[in-house]
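Quarterly update, task 2.4: magnesium ion-bound model.
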Amino acid sequence: MLRIAVPNKGTLSQPASQMLRDAGYRQRTDPKDLACRDEANHVEFFYLRPRDIATYVGSGDLDLGITGRDLLVDSGVPASEVLDLNFGGATFRWAAPADSDITADAIGGRRIATAYPGVVERYLAERELKADVVRLDGAVENAVRLGVADLIADVVETGATLRQAGLVTFGEPLLRSSAILIGRPDEEAAGAAQLVRRLQGVLVARSYVMLAYDVRADLLDEATGLTPGFESPTVSPLHREGWVAVQAMVPRRDVHRIMDELYELGARAILVTDIANCRL
Ligand SMILES: Nc1ncnc2c1ncn2[C@@H]1O[C@H](COP(=O)(O)OP(=O)(O)OP(=O)(O)O)[C@@H](O)[C@H]1O
Ligand SMILES: O=P(O)(O)OC[C@H]1O[C@H](OP(=O)(O)OP(=O)(O)O)[C@H](O)[C@@H]1O
Ligand SMILES: [Mg+2]
């Protein structure tokens, strides 16, 4: 049985379970449950703190896990990224009071508050900088005004928490994070490839839609130029002479622009449908 770690709480928890459900797996129904067996798919899920998930996967006690890229880096554990899951996006950034003179080049020697000391220490070590890293559990944005640090390094999503604390970001992000599937490097557990394929199916279904339209055959090259599809568009004859029907996957974010352009070209009966799931 494949054994998989899933966040039990926090930002990543609900979307991680939803993605597994969309991939056809059974998930816990009570948010307090610690495990859930999916007999039909030969998978068992364990609900763990996202921060601890790399530890279980790195040690080989669990086969795969869903966590944040920043948490994996912070753990320093020998687990590796298998698939970017495209949710839970955030940057990890430096921030200081708006009136502070601290810049990215002048971090050495300062007091840095963070809940991700592994990420910060790796950054400092790579640049041979020394600084005093103050490890906190959360609400790190309070650290400067309360006097325990000169700057912070923290997760920034909307930036609302920083603004509320009178802090501004500076320098390049230390890293860009999102939810990822992690596994052991150079080791693939039995059944892992199927789970990865299912998740890839969900990712494609979320970011593409199916577009169908009718167009005059002499405009087909121009039309399929707008809708090249994933591999190649499907073109079928229509009863109406000189016309063809086209079907192609298009990126969801571009679909309205593409429909406008197809209409202007002369295509008609332009229909969009969601893809529930797929294997490409
Ligand atoms: N707005 C956000 N706040 C915190 N973490 C976020 C946010 N958006 C994405 N993430 C990601 O979620 C992971 C942190 O999740 P975690 O559950 O540890 O913290 P949390 O969601 O802040 O919950 P809590 O602080 O209540 O424990 C990281 O990978 C982080 O990059
Ligand atoms: O850029 P924003 O959209 O404001 O989101 C980022 C903030 O949200 C999280 O805090 P959380 O509410 O989880 O509290 P915590 O610091 O106790 O983890 C995170 O640690 C940042 O503080
Ligand atoms: Mg938090």
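Highlight for this quarter: Helices lie at 13-22, 50-58, 69-75, 117-126, 160-164, 192-207, 220-226, 255-265.
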